[in-house]
Amino acid sequence: MASSAEIGAEQLGLAIKGVKAACTAIEHEIAAGTTPGAVLGVVYEGKQWFYSAGYANPRPKQGQPVPVSEDTLYDCASLTKVVVTLPLILQLIDEGVLTLSTKVSNILPPFGTAGKEELTVGQLLAHTSGLQADMNLHSQGWDREQMWDAVLSAPLVTKPDTEVIYSDLGYLALGCMIEKVLGMSLEQAVKERVLDPLGMRHATLTTSPEQVGRYAATEYEDTIQDHLCGIVHDEKARALGGVCGHAGLFATAGDLLQYARMWLVQGAIPGTVGPAGVGESRILSRAAAIAATRTHTGHIHGSNRGLGWVLKGDKMDASGDWMGPGCYGHTGFTGTSMWIDPELDLAVVLLTNRVFGGRSSSVAQLRAQVHNALTGAVAW
């Protein structure tokens, strides 16, 4: 009987050696205890394949260990920034409602304090605003209104456009802007404008913790005396109700591959692209997709960020060694990632729940190994 790797190599048209190496790297990290399980999703030249291994929840309070499957929902963490918030903002720019130079305070007046009066949408997208990276919202005893007051009134920690500070606060503000401009919740906006049109049928910002078998468990939480399962891991998102611009998305590998496919065809809905664009349906304009994946931080030493996306050579680049200079992607704190190489017509989604055993485990090396193996498999 053919192995999963052999089937994958045949389905994708990739070299078996590289596909096997990617699977072996995942199996090694599961055996080492880095993560209890993982799902790998690959799209190459329009063909896709999935590989799953290990457990979504090896120690549920009740019942038997839950194995990982292709349909396991993972807490995407910061992939939310590029799968939810980024496309919605780009759509509003496409529609002439916003521009990259729109001042955030024009939409959110409380934001226009503490030196932030001139900050723009583009600066928040590229993490060049000078806002601090993080803020403790969950243990202050604040209600939701007080939390939002703290986020929007936060001062700058550095002069704008002088440094890249990867900021959750900036994407919290962007999510708030989307709700204000569209007059609907972030959850409703992304469902109507991104998830449903793309057929991302499992992806959600509203979870059902009682259906624990659907979710990959994350970190142990003292307050519930159990691992979080179907409950967002990020403390800020959890405190704010779970629906935020920086974290809160749950999705399967198939959902995220469908999203990656849209970027590979520069904003069109996969399957609708006709000759010269005739008859195609779009999530984003081609211009928006191109602009988001070119550098917006060339003036800042050591950084290479697009709008939302991490580009090749940035300090947060997780593409590995062999992906090309035009690749881009993003990671999530829980152990998730998506990387896209348009030159190779390749996208790789790797979902792990590496925080199951605590926050010290790292899948950085695993991402590099998987990306190298699959990129190398293209070239054979």
Give me some keywords for this one.
two-stranded antiparallel sheet, seven-stranded antiparallel β-sheet, 12 helices, alpha+beta, 380 residues
Which overall shape is indicated by the principal axes computed on the Cα atoms? Answer: globular
Please, what is the average pLDDT? Answer: 95
Helical amount: 25-40%
Biggest β-sheet: strands ordered side by side in the sheet: 3-2-1-11-10-9-8
What would you report as the Rg, rounded to the nearest angstrom?
20 Å
The termini sit apart by: 24 Å
Could you give a short account of the major beta sheet?
A: 7 strands, antiparallel
Q: How many H/I helices?
A: 12
Order of helices and strands: HHEEEEHHHHHHEEHEHHEEEEH
Strand content: 5-15%
> Tally of extended strands?
11
Low-confidence stretches: none
> Which structural class do the helices and strands define?
alpha+beta
Describe the structure.
This protein is of the alpha+beta class and about 375 residues long. It has helices spanning about 5-10, 15-30, 80-95, 105, 120-125, 145-150, 170-180, 185-200, 235-240, 255-265, 285-290, 365-380, and strands spanning about 35-45, 45-55, 65, 75, 220, 225, 250, 310, 330, 335-340, 345-350. It has a 7-stranded antiparallel β-sheet, with helices on both faces. Strand 5 (about 220) and strand 6 (about 225) form a beta hairpin. The longest helix has 16 residues, at about 15-30. It is globular and about 65 Å long. The two termini are about 25 Å apart.
